[in-house]
Amino acid sequence: MDHSNMDHSGMGHGGMGHGGMGHGGMGHDDGGMHDMCSMNMLFTWDTTNLCIVFRQWHVRSTVSLVFSLLAVILLAVGYEALRALSRRYEGALAKHVQSLPRQNQEKADQRTHIIKAVLYALQNFYAFMLMLIFMTYNGWVMVAVTLGAFIGYVAFGQKTSATKENACH
What we know:
This protein is an all-alpha fold. The protein has 3 helices and 2 strands, in the order E-E-H-H-H. A hairpin with a 6-residue loop joins strand 1 (50-51) and strand 2. The protein is elongated, with a radius of gyration of 22 Å. The chain starts with 49 loop residues before the first strand and ends in a 13-residue tail after the last helix. Mean pLDDT is 80; it is low at 1-31.
């Protein structure tokens, strides 16, 4: 597919033209294109100008890479914690509704359905954000997401099937 006629000015490519030269020339003191987020669409282990989901989450050093990878691991662990919390809360709600008199169960069922819908939406948002993090196509970030999922499952998934039911992460 030929992309030569597309306007890439707003895509964070630093105005790169053919041959790797920026339109504004080289030698800017403000970091210029050397401090732009790289947008890889192929698998890489390179962390030069790695941005994770947001332009503000820009990895510029080994220290920021280590902290970023730890943050990604914690985010993935947090997702598994949210799933476990949601399952536990859903079980407690079901027991509570069944303990109510028959005429109050229908109204309580409607209320609990809304709460479960909120938890479901949060889980989906969280899973899609992890998918976007994974889609940096950076091997280190992919390993961090996977490691976080492993740790989260070990910590929170004792009563959960190992079969993944959510395909977006």
